[in-house]
Amino acid sequence: MPETQVKAYLDNSATTRPCAQAVQAVVDAMETHYFNPSALYAPAVEMERALAEARHVIAASVQADADQVLFTSGGTESDNMAIYGALRGLRQPGEVLFSAAEHPAVRNACVDAATLYGHTAREIPITARGGVDLAALETMLNPAVRLLCVMQVSNETGAVQPIAEIAALRDRLAPEAALHVDGVQGYLRVPFSLRTSGVQSYAISGHKVHGPKGVGALVLRKGYRLQPLLVGGGQQNNLRSGTENTPGILGLAAAVKAYPATTQAQPQLAALRHRAIELLAQEIPPFHVLGPEADAPDAAPHILYAALPPVRAETLVHALEAQGVLVGTGSACSSHKRKGSDTLAAMRVPPALRESAIRLSFSIQNTAEEVEFALEQIIRQYRLLAPFTRR
Questions:
Q1: Cβ of 175: how many Cβ atoms within 10 Å?
Q2: Which of 38, 102, 250, 332 is the most buried if burial means most Cβ atoms within 10 Å?
């Protein structure tokens, strides 16, 4: 089928291009190391060891224990496993809290699981910057809260959530509550330690960090227990039965090993975001940052939600695509549903800004030249479209 000639790819929060190491690991696993790790012969035992090594790689990246790493099909399954698995085993009903910025994989799972298991689900308000409203959360926490779900980084605004402060509030006001963090947009790009954060479960997705699609992990705090959602052959300590996706897992581990240290990746990504804010603010006066501004401590280094009124986001996205520049309009999981952003609504962003918001998300593979070209095209297409846009 015909392919778009991509000159600048700035939709890395939707997915990333797999790195060469991940691709090679997948190919090797499919062509040569295709054995079932549950079998008894030598090549299968080698695959079992390779999976164990992959667990160590993931565990080390978040300061966790290797035996607490569960491989899944991706972020959605990891979030669902954490939520349903936590609530399914509780004997007494309670409350489930989730932030208004959550991805549907968390939001919908919280509402459904709460109904299914007799709990009450409530939404935590967020501020105009996109972060959890800590004052509101403090009034909502009580000993009846059983589960608290907050993403590490907003997939739309790039707001880094105050996990440490949330954990401290939980410890004081709802000590029995588990804290689940959707780390899909923050993993490897924003520092995180399972050992010191007070978090019970942490979800990651391979294709957001230059690994393959269809693989992810749920990392559990030592001693934390979940009820399994899948039953079968008892793989992964009876918590996630089914033959392991060895090509995907080894591809994920290869991508994590190849990813630069967070201290190295953060400045590289932040420089691209800062340049985008600087140039767009200079050349397009109506430009607004939706979420944390440039250099703010609660701003993820790799996501910029840019409102460019009066041009509609969908119009600008297609105009840019024709020039070989690919950007997003928010959550990739919701873009085809033509539904307004729940996160922007919760932030009380005016409709005119919501409708004109595009998301630029950067990766370690983006070059300064590539980003500069993309920004030039955004400015050029905006100037062509703005005069013909109804206000």
A1: 10
A2: 250
Whether pTM > 0.85 for this model: the answer is yes
Digit-coded pLDDT (tens) for 32-65: 999 988 888 998 899 999 999 999 999 999 999 9
Q: Quick check: is 149 catalytic?
A: no
User: Which tokens sit at 125?
Assistant: 């308000």
> Which phi and psi (to 5°) does residue 15 adopt?
-170, 165
Helix (H, G, I), strand (E, B) or coil at 124: strand
Please, which residues have CB within 8 angstroms of residue 309's CB and are 6 or more apart in sequence? Answer: 286, 288, 352, 353, 355, 356
Tokens of 277: 């804010």
* Of 19, 110, 149, 333, catalytic: 333
**DSSP codes joined into one string, 340-377:** --HHHHHTT--HHHHTTEEEEE--TT--HHHHHHHHHH
In this structure, the number of other CB atoms found within 10 A of the CB of residue 146 comes to 22
β-strand 178-182 against 145-151: which pairing, if any? parallel
| Greatest C-alpha distance within the chain | 70
Grade residue 272 by pLDDT with cuts at 50, 70 and 90. very high
d(CA 212, CA 274): 29
- In order of 112, 152, 156, 196, 224, the CA distances from 164 in angstroms are 27, 11, 21, 9, 19
- Cα(332)–Cα(213) distance, integer angstroms: 14
How far apart CA 184 and CA 215 sit, in angstroms, is 12
Phi, then psi, of 109 in degrees rounded to 5: -65, -40
